[in-house]
Amino acid sequence: MPAYQLASREYQQEDTVIELKTCRIGSGQVVIIAGPCAVESEEQMLGLASTLKEMGVHILRGGAFKPRTSPYSFRGLGEEGLRILARARELTGLPVVTEITDVRNLDMVLKYADILQIGSRNMQNFDLLREVGRVHRPVLLKRGLAATIEEWLLAAEYILAEGNRNVILCERGIRTYETYTRNTLDISAIPAIKELSHLPVIADPSHGTGRRSLVAPVARAAVAAGADGLMLEVHPCPEEALSDGPQSLLPAQLEHLLAELRPMAESLGRRLSGSI
Ligand SMILES: [Mn+2]
């Protein structure tokens, strides 16, 4: 039995499936999570949310608490951002995922979020992992920016060991010597996780590449490698985005990508729509 016992295939052979109103993550379905990097205003979020719903996106994303490399960058709207996300959910019926950065905000974020996201920079914030492990809300755990696969699974183990078995892993790229891309999205981590663990694993080609032009090809590669879903940043006007504009797709680009992914998923015996 590896050190990450509860997360391991040895412990549980059948895949963990996370049931949400619009999709089943880990069931073989290719689940699409999309939205802006940060919630910027009600107008931005609600308008985009309806567009995404029409395209067949399953889950909305949007950051209200943004851990930024520079303290002078936009750091999110806080609880007002969460309220806007909740309105987007009411309007569309789509579940929402948002990042929690601080254990002191757990009760607040639980009031609004369907999935709690632990960001890359907090993958080894063990107190935060234990706290989200004590609730039963699904947790999306991003890979740390310099974490090995084993360290990532051990971070998941912190959540599982507290009783919360609803963990979704997210490959978002790691730091390498390459600087052309923002991070190096580790495609091989996806099938590796599938071998080592029963937990679902999705990919985030937006942060994984940092470049809009590379998002769609890397998204296709991730699905081909077996990812249970994709997390994609989309903005109606990326040049005006308060964060991560250069890696945000335009809504029309997402629509094009989804049209490419549908037949691709089918050829692999999988589907984007409906539940499997
Ligand atoms: Mn972002």
Automatic annotation (TrEMBL):
Domain of life per record: Bacteria
Transmembrane segments: none
Xref: SUPFAM superfamilies: Aldolase (SSF51569)
Stretches assigned to the DAHP synthetase I/KDSA domain: 17-262
Pfam families to which the protein is assigned, alphabetical: DAHP_synth_1 (PF00793)
Record key words, sorted: Transferase
Any one GO molecular function term: aldehyde-lyase activity
Family matches, as InterPro entries: Aldolase_TIM (IPR013785), Class-I_DAHP_synthase (IPR052899), DAHP1/KDSA (IPR006218), DAHP_syn_2 (IPR006268)
GO biological process, one term: aromatic amino acid family biosynthetic process
Designated name of the protein: 3-deoxy-D-arabinoheptulosonate-7-phosphate synthase
Organism per entry: Desulfofundulus australicus DSM 11792
